[in-house]
Amino acid sequence: MSHDSSASPRYREITVRGSYHEMGRQLGEAERDGLKGFVSLGLQRLHQMMRISSERIAAIVSECTAKTEQYAPELLMELRGMSESSGVPFNDLMFLQLRNQFTPAMADSGCTSFSIGRTASTEGRALVGQNWDNDPALDEYTVVLTRKTDDQPALMTVTQVGLTAYVGFNSAGIGACLNTLPAPSRAIGVPHYFTLRRIFESTSLEQAVDAVRSADRAIPANIMLTTPQGPANLEVTIDNVHVLRDEQNRVVVHTNHCLHPDLIHLNSQFGELIQSGPRKRRMDQQLCARQSGLNLEALKEALRDHDGFPRSICRHQNDDPQHGNWETVFSIIMDPQEGRMHVSRGTPCSNSYEIYEMKD
User: What average pLDDT does the segment 177-199 reach?
Assistant: First the structure.
């Protein structure tokens, strides 16, 4: 079901500051009930999809924690601070980071994303955005979170409480959106959200790619970026990171299938995720084929598009046996240069875009 219009059109806003551990403590204090609820929902959804013992869950969490200790030990300090102040066990918070490693059905989402270069934007600024199509029950646990620390760029994300990183941008001009990419996966590895957090600690496309490549990854993912070097898309597999660019640095579009020539063969091995092909073609039609500049309103209209309704870019619940309950839970367009995001809480066809700003 869609977001209840009688509720607030805005997400809760939280700002945390200080060391990783201190930011975790502040977030745990602010979102104690939300963290407990999100863990409960995550475990419920996992058990609906597969039979797995608590012992097996604990074993996978332990192995992935060891991998993450090697990759980004300071990020685990944030989770430990969160655990201490909220009373939610550390292993439960770690489970939230890797729950999509248990089964492909728990993957990030089926989404439609784009990155617009400065030359394609009438505002003269780079923009990146997406519709985030997923389980509407996640709305209750979604917040707009700003992290500020002395030795890293400030970071603003739309995220479920407790996640190390999610859709957002940093003060160095790096913005990222997320799409599920059907491809081979494994249960053990550094969870996707830690590599994403490392991207947000980067200041260039090269650093962002290196941040992902250096992780021993467990799942594939698609990451749509705006960077100081222009728009880019990362098709991330467990073995490599393939970068997609537009030669003119104008528009890059992605949905939920592989586009890089080295990966296209995977599309025949994995089922198409919620009409990925038609959504890609429709978004190309709206953005890539447009000769005049793209403005904010044009991008909003593209994200509200109902071609193929209800299995459209603006997705609504339908009778699909596997993902029919998924809908556009939020729609977002980010303007990192201005430190601003425009976010529709719920389907953008029936909810307004609210503005959130990263304040000093």
Answer: 95
**Which helix (DSSP H) or strand (DSSP E) does residue 320 occupy?**
none
* C-alpha span between 345 and 11 (Å, rounded): 7
Amino acid in the structure at residue 32? R
* pLDDT of res. 162: 97
How buried is 248 (Cβ within 10 angstroms: 0-12 exposed, 13-18 middle, 19+ buried)? exposed
pTM of this structure: 0.95
* Topology (CATH) of 107-357: Penicillin V Acylase; Chain A (3.60.60)
Token pair of 2 as six digits:
């869609």
Could you list the beta-strand ranges (E) of the chain.
Answer: 12-17, 110-116, 127-134, 142-148, 155-160, 167-170, 175-179, 221-227, 230-236, 241-244, 251-254, 327-335, 340-345, 353-357
What was the pLDDT predicted at 6? 47
Per-residue pLDDT band for 200 (boundaries 50, 70, 90) equals very high
- What is the full DSSP assignment across 234-265? EEE-SS-EEEE--TTSSEEEE-SS--STTTGG
Q: What is the pLDDT of residue 106?
A: 46
3 state DSSP class of 280: helix
Between the alpha carbon of residue 178 and those of residues 29, 78, 133, the distances in Å are 28, 22, 11
Convert 117-147 to b/e letters by CB count within 10 Å (16 or more is b).
bbebbeeebbbbbbbbbbebebbebbbbbbb
In degrees, rounded to 5, the angle at the alpha carbon of residue 279 between the alpha carbons of residues 250 and 179 is: 75
Tokens representing 68 are: 């993450």
Task: Give the mean pLDDT of 206-225.
Answer: 97
pLDDT in tens, 78-130: 999 999 999 999 999 999 999 989 875 445 467 999 999 999 999 899 999 99
* Tokens standing for residue 354: 């609210």
DSSP H or E segment with residue 286: none
pLDDT tens digits along 222-232? 999 999 999 99
State the Cα–Cα distance between residues 97 and 188, nearest whole angstrom.
Answer: 12
Residue 211: which residues within 8 A CB-CB, separation 6 or more?
195, 198, 199, 201, 202
Q: Show the tokens assigned to 189.
A: 């590895």
Q: What pLDDT, on the 0 to 100 scale, is given for residue 334?
A: 98
